[in-house]
Amino acid sequence: MRILVTGGAGFIGSQFVRDTLAGRLLSPPDVRVTVLDKLTYAGNRANLDAVAGDPRLTFVHGDITDVRLVDEVLPGHDAVVHCAAESHVDRSLTGAHDFVTTNVLGTQVLLDAARTHGVGRFVQVSTDEVYGSAGPTGAWTEDAPLAPNSPYAASKASADLLALAQHRTHGLDVVVTRCSNNYGPHHFPEKLVPLFLTRLLDGRRVPLYGDGSHVRDWLHVADHCRGIDLALHRGRPGEVYHLGGGTELPNKELCGLLLEACGHGWDMVDHVEDRKGHDRRYALNSAKARTELGWTPTVPFTEGLADTVQWYRENRSWWEPLLERAALTR
Ligand SMILES: NC(=O)c1ccc[n+]([C@@H]2O[C@H](COP(=O)([O-])OP(=O)(O)OC[C@H]3O[C@@H](n4cnc5c(N)ncnc54)[C@H](O)[C@@H]3O)[C@@H](O)[C@H]2O)c1
To answer: Whole-structure pTM over 0.85, yes or no?
Structure first.
């Protein structure tokens, strides 16, 4: 089996590649993996260090919007796991162009090539943010209307619709996964958990948006990758599957846990103006993935968070060189 993983040098894609090659997922031991990654500010070859010498891995440095390159790379692959994206909401508020180019146009380039070259399965890795902001209770099922609020979320919703259209129109074997907020190792230090951790471990202050009451549902990246893998191997063509972590927390509460883990108090927190269009709550109903794919998150949040804190403590050499890049892009 040959799998093309786009964005395989990023946070989630690299976890998927490491877990696949380590035999922790369902692909057979003779699986071959090609990573296609542009190495944007968020992409990092070091995320693949653990598997760099593996003869089953091929790394291609390139852009998913490059039609000619994608046409060269894709033939011979049985499946695409599409993780490549511009993924940071804040950056989409000040510059949506790259989000539309990569997330929308890039996805269409891959879909067209997948169809032309007879790729068996296309997994579109997406997000709960496509549904907009949830009410205080309840959780979205897969047929909830798409109502994205940020340019990032709108670009992901567009990509999901293009992928599903490719299935309905041309019969491409597409599966869409939508997950909640991920946390874990190798997370670029611009999103809440790694930003706060790297700052607090350096004795620096952290910025908390608005009143901190925005609720997110936390999913360990390894559980997310098991869900992507189950969708790859067992998902039904043309279906959407929710992968929610099941641990809903207001940002303020998560901030408190990170402060405690790093031995700091609330005096380290700057309450900053809220993000524009900040969604109050996301909530996914994952019953379909549980029933059809046999997926359920296995990493207890307290344990996963403690392991993540420990990983950032022990891997300064991974994140210190990224701080300047993270600051420049903010
Ligand atoms: N992190 C989360 O909590 C989360 C939650 C829900 C969904 N997702 C989705 O999961 C996927 C992966 O997210 P992530 O957190 O790993 O993102 P990331 O920003 O860590 O990694 C993205 C990767 O894509 C690569 N890339 C960007 N533009 C590219 C292009 N034009 N061509 C080729 N490669 C390109 C980058 O170099 C990087 O390696 C994304 O599609 C994202 O929308 C993430």
So the answer is: yes
